[in-house]
Sequence to fold (300 residues):
Amino acid sequence: MQLSTRSPQTQTQPRRIDWSSVGLHTFLIILAFIVSIPVIWLLLSSVKAESDLVTESLQILPAVFQWDNYVKVFTEISFGRFFRNSIFLSLVFASLTVITSCMAGYAFARIPAFGRVQLFAIVVGLILIPAGVYIIPQFILFTLLRRALIDLIGVSDLLDYVPWILLGLGASPFHIFLFRQFFMSFPKELEEAAEIDGASIYRIFLQIILPNAVTLIATSFILNFMFVWGDFIMPILYLSDRTTTLAAVLSGAGYTNPQGYPIVSLKLAGSVVYMLVPVVIFFFTQRYIMRGVVTSGLKG
Fold:
């Protein structure tokens, strides 16, 4: 008979269960489920019949799954046109805001000028002002401007997009702050070496600064895109029925029956399709968002 040569010290010890870790994961799973309840309810309600949504008793699962609700979402309204309008506005605003905010952030971080500190304090102060404070004067300003442009060049659908163009050209205080903080933490020795080689400030910005700020640029673009994509107040105020966005249609009378009452099941199905865009964008770009916010820094 062959005896085992393994010593008691070398025998595998049974792995102990970390009950604190089990409890933490259990709590997080329960919390995630609770947070997901509205989304689950939206998905289930989007495939219900209209009669199932107005019953007095609580009905979680639909009696019959109405998958044709998602077909009617595209056929009951001009879904494609409103979707294109949303994409166009989001891309235009995000592109302009990123360009101007990046340039302003670099100017605050690197270009010495009289009153720079005081002006940056005003920019930071603008972040603290809620949007509801200036929505009325902003509406009056853009309305008067639109009338002046109509008198100048005539009626055009492109005039409806002027508020987003001007706001994009005016930059975003929050994103100016993000870019400024990032550029403050950027090694100044690289810029000084480029200056010694004869590079101008424009060349330094385009060939040295921007390539090293790709992560923050992508983060800023995504956040600005999602801001316009999810906004329905400005489209309701400034856009016509032809140029309005999908968010405004879903929040208003987009899906109605012949009597003018909203078709709730189609609104819910349309909302599911509408939220697929931000979900897909976040799924593919979440690493840029996390890295961009972290690398922006808070010093300076």
In short: The mean pLDDT is 84.
